[in-house]
């Protein structure tokens, strides 16, 4: 994912969630899916869709008289890019600093702590293989 694509705003991310879930979608379908969870008017949603197309995150194809929108990148690719961008910006790229800060400053349940231990143990076993 290039630098331009990693700059997806929170509002654009909301549009992408709908498209990842149920592509391809027309703008009318996207508007319909967002009407109960946002207060955005249709013009705002059209603007967000157009931005995503120009960022090459959304593709568009014409089906009859309607345009259908589909993702050009996966949710996982976007998450990875956003995570990398966040780490660079907030923690100078240090995953360790992020993880330590998170663990020290969050109230984790016993179950969450155990899940973290399991993930770390699996990672250590993989690295030792």
Automatic annotation (TrEMBL):
GO molecular function: DNA binding
Pfam families in alphabetical order: Penicillinase_R (PF03965)
GO biological process, one term: negative regulation of DNA-templated transcription
Protein name per the record: BlaI/MecI/CopY family transcriptional regulator
Entry superkingdom: Bacteria
Similarity comment: Belongs to the BlaI transcriptional regulatory family.
InterPro entries recorded: BlaI_family, WH-like_DNA-bd_sf, WH_DNA-bd_sf
Keywords assigned: DNA-binding, Transcription, Transcription regulation
Annotated organism of origin: Chengkuizengella marina
């Amino acid at each position: 994912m290039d630098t331009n694509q990693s700059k997806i705003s929170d509002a654009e991310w909301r549009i992408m969630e709908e498209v990842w879930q149920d592509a391809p979608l027309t703008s009318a379908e996207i508007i319909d899916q967002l009407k109960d969870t946002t207060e955005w008017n249709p013009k705002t949603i059209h603007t967000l869709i157009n931005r995503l197309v120009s960022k090459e995150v959304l593709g568009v194809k014409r089906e009859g008289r309607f345009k259908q929108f589909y993702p050009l990148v996966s949710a996982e690719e976007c998450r990875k890019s956003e995570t990398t961008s966040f780490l660079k910006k907030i923690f100078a790229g240090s995953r360790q600093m992020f993880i330590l800060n998170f663990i020290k400053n969050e109230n984790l349940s016993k179950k969450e702590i155990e899940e973290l231990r399991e993930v770390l143990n699996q990672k250590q076993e993989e690295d030792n293989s």
